[in-house]
Design goal:
Layout: H1 7-11, H2 18-21, E1 26-30, E2 33-36, E3 41-44, H3 47-50, H4 59-70, H5 83-97, E4 104-108, H6 113-128, E5 133-136, H7 145-149, H8 154-158, E6 167-170, H9 182-191, E7 202-205, E8 208-209, E9 215-216, H10 219-232, E10 235-239, E11 263-266, E12 279-283, H11 302-311, H12 318-338, E13 345-351, E14 354-361, H13 364-377, E15 380-381, E16 383-385, E17 391-394, H14 402-418
Parallel strand pairs: 3-15, 5-6, 5-7, 7-10, 10-11
Antiparallel strand pairs: 1-2, 2-3, 4-12, 8-9, 11-12, 13-14, 14-17, 16-17
Helix pairs in contact: 4-11, 5-11, 12-14, 13-14
Keywords: Aminotransferase, Pyridoxal phosphate, Transferase
Cofactor: pyridoxal 5'-phosphate
Protein name: Diaminobutyrate--2-oxoglutarate transaminase
Length: 419
């Protein structure tokens, strides 16, 4: 007798995605462990696609949220001034901006990363009076119309249903086809008056392409790109939505290059607790908005401010940043020792606590899919990414213990060996 379809199959749209990769009904979570309704536990090497850098239900944040709720603290206030926002801005200034010599103003956008990207593009065009944007092959910036226009995936762009114009795509300096001299290509486009391409309003990039397959731009390349943008009056937008908040080892992914983007988008783990929140950081002189010119009903969820303020406490502890580096070395060592002995040519890429194992030369998508499914069956949640989803994406919470990391790596390596 066939089983009756679940309520999810009956009523939830076909657009659902992760529920197909993780076929379980989840009930609770703590730290780096998730439990389904049967009580089975799973190690989380997914982190809510980068939203849970501090783990699930982090104790200090949870207590602050409960206390705030019990005090009848205001929950929804649009962009009105509140004590919760005041506390967040003060701590963000003191813990993140000032120690790094960054003099950004902060815009609270709609609650998802794609809205921060939309705001960045819109502001860049307003300030420069230009319309074009340069973006990079392999980049992912969101699923609303403006952010889709600077996302390179054909299927993503096609889903818009209308032409996505005003973007010139540049090959990323590293990718599945090897290295590319994108700086020389950019110079030719910008310096040749007959290149057929106008100087753009902005250039948007991820310093580490996360969904693109964990491709890492070098610090030297980023410095030269910053110089090139300055020479031509192009605003540099760093999309740090997934690579920021410590994922690459420092709070911002661009810190390793010693550069300062003109605009920075943050979302995902900025709230600390998995609550919706998105920011646009901008140079002070770029804040040329008129009041209400980029608005949204949920551009200031107070619970997100409360959790985010508490999350920034991690960055007041030097040992926290050091622990990320230590865990990076652990992951690099474990995979570096194990992968050469496994079947096929496996390509390892990683920085901080974001690693990718590329199966493109070792069975491609089908094998990567089998590995992901086997790992899930054995209690490890992780996703695939990259051009054809050939990359196994390792992205645990930054607070994952070394013992948990070792256990998750053992499950993954065993899955690669037997899939």
């Amino acid at each position: 007798m066939s089983q009756a379809p679940s309520v999810f199959e009956q009523f939830e749209s076909n657009v659902r995605s992760y529920s197909r990769s993780f076929p379980a009904i989840f009930q609770r979570a703590r730290g780096s462990v998730i439990y389904d309704t049967s009580g089975k536990e799973y190690l989380d090497f997914f982190s809510g696609a980068g939203t849970l850098n501090y783990g699930h239900n982090e104790e200090r944040m949870k207590r602050r949220l409960i206390s705030y709720l019990e005090s009848d603290g205001i929950i929804h206030a649009l962009d009105a001034s509140t004590t919760a926002k005041q506390e967040f801005l003060t701590r963000f200034r003191d813990v993140v901006l000032q120690p790094r010599g960054l003099d950004y103003k902060v815009q609270f956008c709609g609650p998802t990363g794609t809205n921060a990207v939309e705001a960045a593009l819109k502001l860049a065009r307003k300030v420069t009076k230009r319309t074009g944007v340069f973006a990079f092959s392999g980049g992912y910036h969101g699923m609303s119309l403006g952010s889709m226009s600077v996302t390179s995936g054909r299927s993503v762009r096609a889903s818009a249903g209308v032409p996505t114009a005003h973007t010139t795509f540049i090959p990323y300096p590293v990718g599945p086809r090897g290295n590319f001299d994108s700086l020389s290509y950019l110079r030719n486009l910008l310096e040749d008056s007959h290149s057929g391409v106008d100087v753009p309003a902005a250039m948007i990039l991820e310093t580490v392409q996360m969904d693109g397959g964990i491709y890492i731009a070098s610090a030297e390349w980023l410095k030269e790109l910053r110089t090139l943008c300055d020479q031509h009056g192009i605003l540099l937008i760093c999309d740090d939505i997934q690579a920021g908040c410590g994922r690459t080892g420092r709070f911002f992914s661009f810190e390793r290059a010693g550069i300062q983007p003109d605009l920075v988008t943050l979302s995902k783990s900025i709230s600390g607790y998995g609550l919706p929140m998105a920011l646009l950081l901008m140079r002070r002189d770029l804040d040329q908005w008129k009041p209400g010119e980029h608005t949204g009903t949920f551009r200031g969820l107070q619970l997100s401010f409360i959790a985010a303020t508490e999350a920034l406490g991690y960055w007041q502890e030097p040992a926290f940043e050091k622990s990320i580096k230590n865990k990076e070395q652990l992951l690099r060592g474990v995979f570096g020792d194990a992968l050469p002995g496994l079947e096929g040519e496996l390509d390892l890429r990683g920085i901080g606590m974001a690693f990718g194992i590329d199966m493109i030369k070792a069975g491609g998508y089908e094998r990567a899919r089998r590995i992901q499914q086997r790992a899930f069956q054995h209690g490890l949640i992780m996703e695939q990414c990259g051009r054809e989803d050939t990359v196994l994406k390792v992205m645990p919470p930054l607070t994952t213990t070394e013992e948990q990391l070792m256990k998750g790596c053992e499950i993954l390596i065993d899955s690669i060996r037997h899939a």
